[in-house]
Design the sequence.
């Protein structure tokens, strides 16, 4: 598997979205349903009156509701041993909070997930 790195530059902060979340989710779902599944990851931005919003959405397996509250905890991962440290979302959460922003997740198990980052301008 190739690693994909997307960097969205927002002065003065760089938000790094790694293969470890959305791209992993669609790869995992593709292995389970290779015949009819069409993987999709979309990213978008918009500017509000006093914030910038970044949305990243995938149509992977989603996040079970019972673990949504844990995904931003350091070292929490659902990946097999050796495939993830559980630090990606934790670090993203800390960076966003340090800049006065917030990060939210909308998850629908078996349908996909959406991460929403809002930063003040």
Sequence:
């Amino acid at each position: 598997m190739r690693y994909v790195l997307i960097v969205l530059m927002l002065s003065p902060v760089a938000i790094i979205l790694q293969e470890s979340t959305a791209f992993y989710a669609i790869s995992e779902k593709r292995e389970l349903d290779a015949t009819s599944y069409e993987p999709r990851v979309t990213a978008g931005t918009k500017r509000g009156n006093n914030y910038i919003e970044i949305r990243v959405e995938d149509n992977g397996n989603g996040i079970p509701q019972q673990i949504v509250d844990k995904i931003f905890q350091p070292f929490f991962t659902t990946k097999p041993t050796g495939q993830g440290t559980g630090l990606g979302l934790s670090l993203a959460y800390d960076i966003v909070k340090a800049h006065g922003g917030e990060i939210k997740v909308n998850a629908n198990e078996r349908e996909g997930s959406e991460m929403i980052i809002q930063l003040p301008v």
Q: What stands out?
A: Confidence is low (pLDDT under 50) at residues 1-20. Residues 5-120 form a domain with the Heat Shock Protein 90 fold (CATH 3.30.565.10). The chain has one domain: 5-120. The chain is about 20% helix and 35% strand.
